[in-house]
Amino acid sequence: ERALGAPIDDPERAQDDRIVIPSNFKNARVLMDEDAERIVGFVVTSEPERSKEKEVAGEPRELLVRTSGDDFSVVTKDSEKLVATAKIPNLVFGRALRNPADGRDDFVAVTRTEDAQSRTWSLVAFRLHEGKLVRVIEAQPAELYKLTAANARWIGAELRDLELYLELTARTDSIEVGGLLTTRIGDKIRDIVVISPVPVPRRKTKPVPHEPNDAGTYDAASGSERAAE
Length: 229
What we know:
Blueprint: E1 13-15, E2 19-20, E3 28-32, E4 39-44, E5 63-68, E6 71-76, E7 82-87, E8 91-98, E9 105-114, E10 118-129, E11 132-135, E12 142-148, H1 149-154, E13 162-170, E14 174-185, E15 188-201, E16 216-219, E17 224-227
Parallel strand pairs: 7-16
Antiparallel strand pairs: 1-13, 2-3, 3-4, 5-6, 6-7, 8-9, 9-10, 10-11, 10-12, 13-14, 14-15, 16-17
């Protein structure tokens, strides 16, 4: 932090907990271990292009995302009072992400599923509407990247040794997801490769109004919203 500045605080970007973007070196990516205690990689890459469309200034952030296991919660910034909650299977990380089109926050989560032959990363995204979390992308979860045992063999690795470090950038009409692919030997990173970004379009229709509730729950398994009990 003394050399590169504190981690960047950009409301229009969100990233894996293991990625640190220094404020004085924005095209650097510092990769941390699972406990965020040790640097395991350092990458210099190109900075994502900012939207060329007119952006709307957003209000100061009042809501945050907290995750624990598969629990995804939106809470107030000052008192961390629960506002809305969702159960999202295979949750990796969740964040608030400012939409430059209207200056309001969406709430995004990346998930990962795996079996013996593949690993798949997907995206779910919500907006708070009358106390409920409603979808802001059409297909949920939206598949982002899939790595297979065959992919791993192409680069001389095992599937278990491949990992993605993802970061999200808000666009006016989409959420762009990119990041880094790493391969490991034991607990050491062998290679780091920048992956091509994937745009996930936003829904064109407005959220359907619901009866007000103190909080809402999204059932990610069935892809439907329901009021909290």
